[in-house]
Structure prediction request, 672 residues.
Amino acid sequence: TEEWLHSLQGHTNQVTGITLNPANHLQVYSCSVDGTVKLWDFIDGILIKDLISLFNEVEVHETVEIFLSSGLCVSACPECFQLVSVHLPKSAEQEVEAKEMSAVSSHISKNPSCTAFGRGVRVHFFFFLVWIRLWRNFIHKKEYTYSTQHWHHNAVNTLCFTPEGTHLLSGGIESVLVQWQYGADNRKEFLPRLGGSILHISASSDGQLFCTSHSDNKITVIESSFKVCGVIQGLVKDAVLTDLMIDPRSKALVLNGKPGHLQFYSLLRDKHLYNLDIVQQEYIYEAGLDQFEVVKAAFDIKGSWLATVEERGKKSSDLEFFLKLWAFDERTQSFVLNTTITAAHTDRIISMCFSSSEETTMLVTAAEDSQFKAWCQGADADTQQDQNFWSCDFVGSYHKLNPTNCSFSADSSLLAVSFQEVITIWSPDTWEMLTTLCQPPGVIRDLCFGRLSCSKYLLGTTTKNLLCCWNLLTCELEWSTSVDVSKLQPDPFSENVAAFSYQSKHTDLFVFKPSEPRPLFTNKNVCSEKVHRAVFVPREEPLNSCDESTQWLNRSQLYFLTQNMDLLTFSTATEEDRMLSSSKQLVIDDSVAVTPFYLLLGKHRQQQQKLNTQSHPAADKPQQTQGSLLHTPAHVLPAASVLCSMFVNSFLISNTGVQQDPLRYFVHIWLT
Prediction:
């Protein structure tokens, strides 16, 4: 089903390698930058043994990856780039110190996937850049030989032997899985176009399935016949050039995905939904190539239209970009290309936004050619189709200054466009410039209108580290404060505005209303990196929080992205308690086929519990969790003779005041 089951938690730093225990297929070893190797029962989620190595004593602070063979744990040391073997002692204690360590080989790659063991450790592989070196009889230093193989045009990232040892799998930046046949010169099989660069390869114990992990946070499951049979896609952690957006229809988070695409990710289910191909060109995974990438995107208020900007030529003077308008297709439940504008501006588009009105849809783009343009739908006279395409409706400028930002008011009656240090206010109905605001020093960096009761205010941040608020009724500066705001994010569902400020190597968060400069909520040091992307996500049901410090989370939830590509959010204590309790409960999905035993006992037990609660509300007593015997591992249960009477009695109730239930007597007789 590709659904997440559970996680194993215990390492205090990044997990760098995992491998199954060859002596027990229900156990797995893991290693970490914290210098420990842990043995887990991954079915029950139990930590069995904690092996502490001597790496820290020899000033080696990272255990990169482990390979198990003949009771040895082999690790790559990134400080001296040696292959080191650590003997795993047998002990009944949970925490064991591994003291026996020896160097196996020197001058190896620091890449944790640089080493692969064949069956019986008689064949061993290293790779050096684009070459693969095969060593035979590696454990006998005087008898080993080696040969060199070549296909990859760039650095090889990972190697893996099949269980029988007759084939070798390799992968790299080309995103092609290569299978080499041992003993057959130049005989190879290829599986291309798997997505991002291949970072790691694994093979199942029976050799029927291969698994590859990719740089785009994806796992691909492949049959031995080289056919893809499953994909587990997480949130693509690549360079994010667009803003964080919410699709008004699916409520999915939308941002840059794999190259040339936008990804739609469900925050509620924590699951990738689909990718939308914007560039519609095959991406070539090769360093140094100048290829199209999506740099801007925006939805209209109803989610009927999507605007995107793709460009290439950042590193050269030959800038090429396209503005595309996508319409939502009710039949396919996806976006289809409606209009492509090849010459929207003569220079790079730096900002764009849709109007907030549900009646008429308008798109405004601002570019470095000292102009902003308004785009509207209109029938194409040259075609006889009923489809409406987009065309330019107005071109605006101000003293040949380059615009820096644009934003519509909540009712779309006003458009604010900033030109360097000046903010211009326009009427979209007549395209008359109503006024200008230019009191604060510094170039305008961010711009947004207030919402709901604060819709008369306009907020802006400047390069001189000022946060300013203007009253549009009086056209005067209402208040300003000195703060270096890296991201200003209004909540479209309330009056609240979030401001992220970076100073002293950490980011602080301030939540406030434009009508009052006093923050409603302050959180110091939310992360150590700058925050440039944030979004408020609407809740399915509003919360009823009475705590003043968390009331700003009642209608929506704030998500933000750090420079390290960590997606973080804020939640209330009530939500944390709910998530913690739900994680401890074993829930059977109604969509899963149930057994006759569950139909007989489980459903009836639930109904009877409701009946008992209604009939005896005051006679509360600890109740056993239905199905606890069925879900508890057998090796931790008491003897069956001890549990039998308790289990049978749990299905019996007093007949006082309760209508007799024939099914209950049948259950009792059947169990007896």
Summary: The two ends are 38 Å apart (CA to CA). The longest helix spans residues 596-615. DSSP finds five helices and 48 strands in the chain. The chain has a mean pLDDT of 79.
